[in-house]
Amino acid sequence: MKSTFLIQRYVPEQDSAPHVERYELDLWDEATILDGLLAIKDSQDDSLAFRRACRHAICGSCSMVVNGYTKLVCKTAIASEVKRGRSELKITPMRSMKVLKDLIVDMSPFWKHFRDVEPWLQPDPAKVPPPNEEYRVTPQQLAPSRKDLNCILCAVCFSDCGVTEVDSHFAGPPALAKAHRFVTDPRDSKRKERLEKLVDLGLWDCAHAYNCMECPKHVDPAHAIADLRRISIEAGITNNIGAKHSQQFTKSVGRNGRLDETRLVMELTGITNVTGQIRNAPQGVRMLLKGKLPLPMHQKVDNPKEVRRIFETVGTKDEQ
Amino acid sequence: MKYAYFTGCVAKGTCPELHASTVELAKVLGIELWEMTDATCCGAGVIRDENPELQIALNARTFAMAEAAEMDIVNICSTCQQNLGQDNRAMREDPALLERTNDILSQNGLHYSGKTQVKNLLWVLVGDYGLDRLAQKVVRPLTGLRVASYYGCQLLRPVEDTGYDDPDNPTSFDNLVRALGGTPVDYAGKTRCCGFHILTVNEDTSTKMAVKRLEEAEEAEADIMVTPCPLCHTSLDAYQPRATKLQGSNVRMPVLHLSQLVGLACGIDVGDLKLNQLMVSPQSALSGVL
Question: Which helix (H) or strand (E) holds A8?
Fold first, then answer.
C-alpha cells in the first residue's frame, strides 16, 4: 500500500522553526504507522527521532499526532488513515509538551500532574493486615476502577485534551482517571483529602469534549471525571464554583423543567457580589441590545409538575 | 418528513435567533416540526455529574413523549445530541436501567420502550433530507464564501451516541457547505472544543479555547464560521468581544448558526433569519452573497 508521511521535523538547538519533510512509502497492507516510521529510519533518513519500544500497545511510548489526533502508532494501521481518504499522513509531536527533537516531547508536565494526584494506595495502617497476609479486595469492589487500571501512561488523552492545551494548571484526563482509581478503592483511607485536592487540580475544569474517549486502552477518563464529580458532591465537597454550578443548574431545571441561564450566571456570581455583577454587566447589556435576553426570561415546560415528581423520586434532597 | 423538535434551553433563551431560523428553514424545506414544548433540559452532562439517574429519567420522559407521537427527535444543539444520545444508549444496553426508569415514568403515566432515534439537524439535513435534494432548494448560492464548518466536539463523540460521521475526519458539514455553493475551509480546530462548558467555572481557560478556535478559522482565511450548536455559538459569537478583550486578541470572526447558513442559501429573508441578533455582524463577510 502506498502512502505519504508528512513529518514535522525540529531540532531546537539547530532549527529556527519546525518544518515538514515528505516521505513516500510502499509497505504491506497491514503495516502500522510505526512500521512506516521504522522503514523511513531504516532506508530513507536515520536522523528521524521518535520514541518506541514494545510495538504491542503495552509500553505506551510511541504516541504522536496523526492527522490531528493523537494515536499510539504501533496500534494504528496506515490503512485505517488511507481508508478515511487520507493517503497523506501528517505526523506531528504530541501537544501540550515541549519538543525535544522531531516527534519526541518532554513529558515532564504529564508526570508532574500524575505525581500531584499521589497515584499510590494509602491505606489506614490500622487496617493493613500483617506482612504475611494479603489486603484482599473483591473484583466487585474494584469494578468502578476497572477501566482506570488499564492505563499505560501513553499520554494520548493528555495530548488530545483541549483544556490541557491552553491551561497548564489542569491535571488532565490521565491523572484524573488515576485519581479515580484510588478514590474508588475501598482500601484507600485518603478519599476525602484526595477529593479536596482534586478540586484544586482542576476536577471541574474538564469541558466534556470527550476527546479522551479515544483511549487506545479504553480507559474512559471522561466518565471517570464525571464520577469523581458525583462522588465529591456526595462527600459534601461543594464549596467550589464547579460543584455550585452543577447544583444550581440541577435546581434550575427542577423548578420548571428548563435551565434559566441568566439566573444561573447571576447566582454563581453571587446575588450580593456587587463587584462580580458589575463585571458581568457589559456582557449582559450587549446581549440585551441584541435581543438575546428575551422575556419571559425562563421558559417553562408544559407540565412542570411531572418534572417535579421525577425530582422527588430520583433527586437528592438538595436537588428538590 | 416529520420530527419531534427538541429545541433545548438555549435556543429558547439566549440564542432566540437559532429557534426562529430553524422554524423558517423547516418551512422552506417542507420538514414538519412538532415542537416538544413539554420536554425538559437534556441535563447537559451537568445533571449527570451530580445525579446520573436523574438525568436519564428526565431524558427518558422526553423519549417517551416522542415515541408516543411516533416521531424521531431532531435537536439543534451538540450537547443535547450527545446527552440524549448517551442516555438513550444507556437504557437500550441495560434493560434493568430501562425498567427502573420506566418505574419512575409510570407515575406520570408514561412508558419508554427504547425506539426513539435522536438526530442533530445536521444529520437530518445530510442523512434524511439529502444533499442532492438540498442543493435543488438553493436559490442564493454561497458562491465564493469561505466557510469554516465548526463541528465542535460534542457532535462527534462518543461516536456510539452521535455516530453519523467519522470523529477523526468528519466530512458531512463540509459536504453540506459545498451543496450550498460555498467553499469549505480546512482548519486545525474544526473538531476541537470551544470551551463553553467551563465558561462559568473557569472563564480564562474557556475564553482561551474559544479565541484559539476563532484564530484558527481566521488563519485559514475563512469569511465566516458556522456551528450546529448554540453553546458553541455562545462561546464563539455572543462572548467574542469579551473573550478577545480578555485574551488580547484582534480576531473578528462572524459566526452563523447552521440553520441561518442553510436558510440564507435557500433564499429566506435575512430579517427572518435574525442575522441582526448575531453579536459579530456578518454583513461585510456576506456582501458577495446577499
Answer: strand A2-9
Identity of the amino acid at B207: T
What is the C-alpha end-to-end distance of chain B, expressed in Å? 29
Instruction: Scan residues 166-205 of A and list those with Cβ closer than 8 Å to B.
Output: 166-167, 170, 204-205
Residue indicated by cell numbers 427542577 = A254
Residue-wise over A237-257: b if at least 16 C-beta within 10 A, else e?
Answer: bbeeebbbbbbbbbbbbbbbb
Q: What is the C-alpha separation between B129 and B132, in angstroms, rounded?
A: 9
Give the domains, in start order, of chain A with CATH numbers.
Answer: 2-105 (3.10.20.30), 108-234 (1.10.1060.10), 241-319 (no CATH)
Q: Where are the beta strands (DSSP E) in chain A?
A: 2-9, 19-26, 63-66, 69-72, 88-92, 99-101, 104-105
pLDDT per position as a tens digit, B149-167 = 999 999 998 877 766 898 8
| Residue from B198, B216, B237, B273 whose CB has the most chain A CBs within 10 Å, to mutate | B198
- In this prediction the ipTM stands at 0.94
Question: What's the whole-number mean pLDDT along residues B126-142?
Answer: 98
Write down all domains in chain B, each with its CATH number in brackets: 2-119 (1.20.1050.140), 139-277 (3.40.50.11810)
pLDDT band at A320 (very low <50, low <70, confident <90, very high): low
